[in-house]
Write a structure and sequence with these properties.
two-stranded antiparallel sheet, 18 helices, 2% strand, O-antigen_ligase-rel_domated, O-antigen ligase-related domain-containing protein
């Protein structure tokens, strides 16, 4: 356990950087969002940094700092008051879900309710920031570039962990059965994250968001390098052995292929074969029905609990939020206990139904459906890179919906952060306008209006 003395060098460095970073955020809060997106995939490294545990709340602090900066930023960094933009339907549904979650948290009370609300709704502040200070075309391009680079780096680290082995990783400070996990005899790579689930789902998100953008501007060196690195990303994701990541990636790729990128359909069979190419011991675990059977029995018990409490058991009473609440000193009688342990639904829909009842589940589904409609409409109203970006966001939403069948997607960091950040990016793309030229194109290039239905370059 790191001591306070070990944390002082890191705290001193943060304080030293606070002034210049504060000035950058005050002049343009969007820079804070880009910094958050760049650092989030590497949050797990704090597990092995001396005193790193004391900095675990850096992301919440950064979000609040950037939000505060939106109120004092210069006018050129803020959304014009007369731009006529209106809140999309998903935002209204998200506000209703937040209100229901807040009421449930108050009823539950204590650490459980407070932590449950934090886990479930804190990163809803990101769309608020994007609404107040939208990312411009260059900043949206930088965001995609950041995720491309982070995806490649984390994939390389994940593959390197297979070479290093669990013993050396344990010596570095990672713990068994928490961070270091196995599927059969295979180490499940976790890269720079705290668990394999975060790693696999993050690489899934990067592939779905960045691939259409790279295809739309395939002559750009950055995008060519990313397309060439996709096999590396796929192999890295496979070493995490996360069912939800493969399921989500297939669902997202099918959408992109059916929507506009016909050539991507050729990637679906290899993706479906990824589990088959794993070692036999891993494949047996991957395809095992016992895990699904355990989840199914838990879900059946959940439906009985819903019948007893149609308004839900209360926010934060299950899953990772409940586990953290127990660590912070919550009483076990405040937590839903199934089989003598804190209940882990491993399904975002079941968790929402259990905690917030049928109304909460309906609002969650409404948020997802309305956000997907908004992404598709935004893509149809744009051309070029902005259209590709909106298509990537739509694919990520579909993947999140598919992955939520086998994971509590919205309480896995940093997937919860990126889910709401990408919805914020949609707010930066006015669905009534056509897109700007690619940042890599010379000034004036591509500014002539073209049909929104124009096709991208073919995918081999």
């Amino acid at each position: 356990m790191p001591t306070l003395a070990a944390a002082w060098p890191i705290v001193g460095l943060v304080l030293l950087l606070a002034v210049p970073l504060g000035w950058l955020f005050l002049s343009r809060p969007q820079r804070g969002l880009l910094l958050l997106a760049a650092l989030a995939p590497f949050d797990g490294l704090l597990l092995i940094v001396p005193g790193g545990a004391s900095l675990g709340s850096w992301k919440e602090g950064l979000v609040l700092l950037v939000l505060a900066a939106t109120f004092v930023a210069p006018p050129e960094a803020r959304r014009p008051a007369d731009d006529g933009a209106r809140l999309p339907g998903w935002a209204i549904a998200a506000l209703a879900l937040t209100a229901l979650g807040a009421a449930s948290a108050v009823v539950v009370g204590g650490i459980v309710g407070l932590w449950g609300f934090k886990v479930g709704f804190f990163y809803l502040l990101l769309p608020v920031i994007c609404w107040r200070c939208p990312l411009d075309a260059k900043e949206r391009d930088r965001l995609v570039g950041i995720l491309m680079a982070a995806g490649v780096v984390t994939a390389v680290v994940g593959l390197a962990q297979q070479v290093v082995g669990p013993e050396r990783l344990n010596e570095l400070g990672y713990t068994y059965n928490d961070v270091i996990r196995f599927s059969g005899s295979l180490l499940r790579s976790f890269s720079t994250f705290t668990q394999p689930f975060s790693f696999g789902l993050f690489v899934m998100l990067v592939l779905l968001l960045a691939t259409p953008v790279a295809i739309a501007d395939h002559r750009r060196l950055r995008n060519r390098l990313f397309l060439l690195s996709t096999p590396l990303l796929l192999i890295g994701m496979a070493t995490s052995v996360v069912r939800g990541a493969i399921l989500g990636l297939v669902a997202g790729m099918v959408f992109l292929a059916l929507w506009r990128y016909r050539g991507l359909v050729h990637l679906v069979p290899p993706l479906l074969l990824v589990p088959v190419l794993l070692p036999a011991s891993v494949l047996a675990t991957f395809l095992s029905s016992s895990s699904l059977g355990e989840r199914g029995s838990g879900w059946q018990e959940t439906f009985g609990l819903v019948a007893e409490a149609p308004w839900g058991q209360g926010l934060g009473t299950s899953g990772a939020a409940a586990e953290k609440a127990l660590e912070l000193g919550a009483e076990r009688n405040d937590i839903l206990i199934v089989g003598g342990a804190n209940y882990q639904p491993d399904n975002q829909y079941v968790k929402t139904l259990l905690e917030l009842g049928p109304i909460g589940l309906w609002l969650l589904l409404l948020v997802g459906a309305a956000a997907l409609v908004a992404a598709v409409r935004t893509a149809s109203a744009h051309v070029g890179v902005d259209r590709a970006l909106a298509e990537g966001v739509a694919a990520c939403l579909i993947a999140a919906g598919a992955g939520s069948l086998v994971a509590t997607y919205l309480e896995i960091f940093p997937l919860d952060l990126y889910f709401w950040l990408l919805l914020g990016v949609l707010l930066c793309l006015d669905p009534r306008s056509t897109s700007t030229p690619s940042p890599s194109a010379p000034e004036g290039a591509g500014s002539r209006p073209t049909s929104a239905s124009s096709s991208p370059p073919s995918v081999p």
